[in-house]
Design goal:
Blueprint lengths: L3 H15 L3 H16 L6 H14 L6 H17 L6 H13 L2 H12 L6 H20 L1 H13 L1 H4 L1
Helix pairs in contact: 1-2, 2-3, 3-4, 3-5, 5-6, 5-7, 6-7, 6-8, 7-8
Length: 159
């Protein structure tokens, strides 16, 4: 059974995917802000993606200081999310889910199919990216179509 706060976050996330408005963005930001406050490391990647998207779209809040605090939070999140961490997989998947951005899908593909693990950390990045991509493909036909196109046009896959 999911934790009640997880269910509320998921409802806010799904609502923002369906209707990306400032009002729904502010609701989503509040849940993300609460999770960052609990220092839930697993939420760093998605939190970074969500905050970036809300700021880019002007859905973070109406006051200038909220934008300022949001930008400072982005800097902090980026500082703590190291390159060899699976949290970046979550970041790119979250960007895909909220924006349908092909560049995010390409990065998911690169991480799932082309990372050569040089360390245990990178091995976990590749493993979780593959698992995540396969899971999303089975749940989202649109993602599967995009990933098939990426695989067909990927220079590394063709060589």
């Amino acid at each position: 059974m999911a934790h009640p706060e997880q269910e509320k976050f998921q409802a806010a996330y799904d609502l923002y995917i369906d209707r990306p408005t400032q009002e729904n963005g502010v609701i989503l930001r509040r849940y993300v802000g609460d999770w960052i406050g609990t220092r839930d490391v697993a939420m760093l990647g998605p939190s970074l993606a969500i905050f970036e998207i809300l700021l880019d779209r002007g859905h973070f809040g109406k006051t200038w200081w909220k934008h300022f605090l949001g930008k400072q939070t982005l800097k902090l999140l980026r500082h703590h999310l190291k390159d060899d961490r699976p949290g970046w997989n979550d970041y790119f998947m979250c960007r895909w889910q909220l924006t349908r951005d092909n560049e995010a899908a390409k990065e998911i593909h690169r991480r799932a199919a082309h990372i050569q693990p040089a360390s245990e950390e990178w091995s976990m990045v590749a493993f979780t990216a593959k698992w995540m991509a396969d899971s999303q493909r089975s749940q989202d036909p649109g993602f599967d179509v995009v990933m098939k196109h990426i695989e067909q046009t990927c220079e590394l896959c063709r060589s």
